[in-house]
Amino acid sequence: xxxxxxxxxxxxxxxxxxxxxxxxxxxxxxxxxxxxxxxxxxxxxxxxxxxxxxxxxxxxxxxxxxxxxxxxxxxxxxxxxxxxxxxxxxxxxxxxxxxxxxxxxxxxxxx
Amino acid sequence: xxxxxxxxxxxxxxxxxxxxxxxxxxxxxxxxxxxxxxxxxxxxxxxxxxxxxxxxxxxxxxxxxxxxxxxxxxxxxxxxxxxxxxxxxxxxxxxxxxxxxxxxxxxxxxx
Amino acid sequence: xxxxxxxxxxxxxxxxxxxxxxxxxxxxxxxxxxxxxxxxxxxxxxxxxxxxxxxxxxxxxxxxxxxxxxxxxxxxxxxxxxxxxxxxxxxxxxxxxxxxxxxxxxxxxxx
Amino acid sequence: xxxxxxxxxxxxxxxxxxxxxxxxxxxxxxxxxxxxxxxxxxxxxxxxxxxxxxxxxxxxxxxxxxxxxxxxxxxxxxxxxxxxxxxxxxxxxxxxxxxxxxxxxxxxxxx
Lengths: 111, 111, 111, 111
What we know:
4 copies of one chain form a homotetramer. In chain A, β2 and β3 (56-60) form a beta hairpin. Chain A is of the alpha+beta class. Chain A contains 4 helices and 4 strands, in the order αβαββαβα. Chain A is elongated, with a radius of gyration of 15 Å. Mean pLDDT of chain A is 90; it is low at 4-11. Chain A has helices at residues 3-13, 32-44, 63-79, 101-107; strands at residues 16-24, 49-51, 56-60, 84-94. β4 of chain B pairs antiparallel with β4 (84-94) of chain D.
């Protein structure tokens, strides 16, 4: 199954939209090489994501899928030698209707 | 002075990039009318902003400018009748170089 | 193995300190019955935790243990009928030394 | 007016409870001297506060009072030489009743 199909499948099942940032606080002021690697790991996961100036928004079919990719970004930063890592996460778990990044932006006139 | 000029001026002075969400927790599951109004207030402030699926990223020349617009969004939600309001804010205050949303995205290969 | 022993074991292995809040945004302004249940789930997990006015601080031996208990609090709120759930999480993952809630407070003169 | 009176006055008027962390990401893994100074600034403000393992919870009569003290902690870290500062803030603004840290903890059986 191709990457495009995976994304379509995920979008149909989406119940979780999360906003997520991870960065080391131990490696000096410039940490873009770590953030770049974390974004690469998120994009390789097959989950739909949009990276902005402060974080990445992720659509996931369930919490387990979201936590798996967050764990993988943390592992990636550990492998790169980060000695202290900060994770900042917000989750919007909606049960009353299927929501996506696109449907949320549309609801506020932003798509 | 036009809006475009204001934005250019702000970008030159930018030292603060913030990510900000505000929503009522008292008004039921659907709160897009409140979020829409908060985004309108942010955009009317003249500060550069980008709204995503979970929050709005704002460039501000200083903390006072940022807190002013956050206060205005809170006032707007109070006027709309929200009985309990949640604010979620992260600030990246960089003193070693002028950073913008664009420069941050460029640093991770995303602009 | 008793609960006390479990806690001691966890503290020895602690590499993760997290701060975590979960609440419905769909159930009106008063949500203490949901928060109370989430705190009960955290305390039943065997992980050391301290609940404050806005969130609960948790010590975990690894990310998987932390994510397991967060997933359980989310499930608990779903079972209680919450239609939209918000999760707010920060993680401090330290690899340079074993940190605990107590050691962090001691370092800033607060224990 | 003494400090104790100020605190009592603030508690009567409290509508804002906030959870706040500030730390440099540019100064290496150990930042307790910066956090200690930020906590000192908060405590000198006269606002009621409780410092935990990951953040400080503050009671404020209004947003302006809260933002003033956050601005002061940021200034303090700049003076100490921090080159990049991260601020993490959540605000619970309640209009349906006067809430305090104590009343929130009591509502979930934790005071």
